[in-house]
Amino acid sequence: MSMSRPNTPLKVPTLPRGDVVATYTSYLEAQKAVDYLADSRFAVEYVTIVGSDLKMVERVIGRLTYGRVALAGVASGAWFGLFVGLLLVLFGSASGGSAGGLIVTAIALGAGFGLLFSVLTFAMSGRKRDFTSSSQIVASDYSILCAPERSGEARQVLGRMAAGVPAGQDGPGGPGQGAPQGQGPIPPYPPQGGGRPGQHGQPGPYGQPGQHGQYGQPPQAPPGGQAPGQHGTPPTWPTPPAQGAPVDTPVEGGGPQPERAPDPRFVTPSGAPRYGAMISDYPPAQATQDARAREAEAARRAQEPSSGARQTDGDAPADGEKPAERTEE
């Protein structure tokens, strides 16, 4: 009857899984890195040292002779005799004087038997192995694997180790490292210099983009060096000119500007403003010609004598028409 449990899974050795956080060429370096993680209070149970490209290395110590074999047999037999003598003294009924002699006798017998066995073994081997050596398994490189959820923290700790920071202390940029002492948070200062295009996200109307100057005048910097529209008194916007009104253009040199004659398209011959006139109704050439005709008619009427036939209001020519010829009775 089998006594094994069918539900018990077999413990088959498997390769560990995780992220490689560091790689070293010797086991001592990998051991030092894991020791640094432990001193930095890192959970080392998530860490595994994996050696890659394993090789068995046998280092030859020296050549074997009968003398070397006999000396090694005497040493090993003496240690075994000492152990047997101590057991006899502890569990036997020997007194103090006889206990010392018993231990010496056990050491001598052990050395003799060790010498005999080692020489006989070497002679029976046929001297096919005339050298002594030591064997060990060595890897080409040693990788430190860490669980994915803790691999980032492990890299930070090993980075401080490479920077020479003692274990248990946070270096520059490590966890718990705040802003430098004596410095507060940097306030969000606005950009310096006024009149830049796109300032505060919108251009300034009636002038240069983003500048709040008088219409037609170059912008002037406000007192105190504060840019317009920046954390101060809200800017005042100039009133746009009326449609069709004349606009004064600055003349270089700073001298007085000459007055312009009113546009005849927007005034009557007597100088009164003409209401309801639109620029589209009076093309430039036609408007100038009609204005000249009205000025000539007004001058002719002023020079006529008051006597004679009077022209009625119904005979008055309309705007843009020539006056009808008048016959005297």
Backbone structural class: alpha+beta
Task: Please describe the biggest sheet, giving its number of strands, its sense, and whether it closes into a barrel.
Answer: 3 strands, antiparallel
Radius of gyration: 57 Å
What amount of the residues lies in strands? 5-15%
Which strand order does the major sheet show? 1-3-2
The CA-CA distance between the termini, in Å, is: 160 Å
**Which spans of ≥5 residues are poorly predicted at pLDDT below 50?**
173-219, 221-232
Subunit organisation of the chains: single chain
Average of per-residue pLDDT values: 71
Number of strands: 3
Spell out the helices and strands N to C: EHEHHEHH
Number of helices: 5
Q: How would you describe the shape? A: rod-shaped
What percent of residues adopt helix (DSSP H or I)? 25-40%
Written overview of the protein:
The chain has a three-stranded antiparallel beta sheet. The chain contains five helices and three strands; from the N terminus they run E-H-E-H-H-E-H-H. The protein is α+β, with helices and mostly antiparallel strands and 329 residues long. Helix content is 30%, strand content 12%. Among the domains are: 19-56 and 138-162, Alpha-Beta Plaits (2-Layer Sandwich), CATH 3.30.70; 65-129. The protein has helices at 27-39, 66-91, 96-124, 151-162, 284-303; strands at residues 19-24, 47-63, 131-146.
Features of this protein?
329 residues; alpha+beta
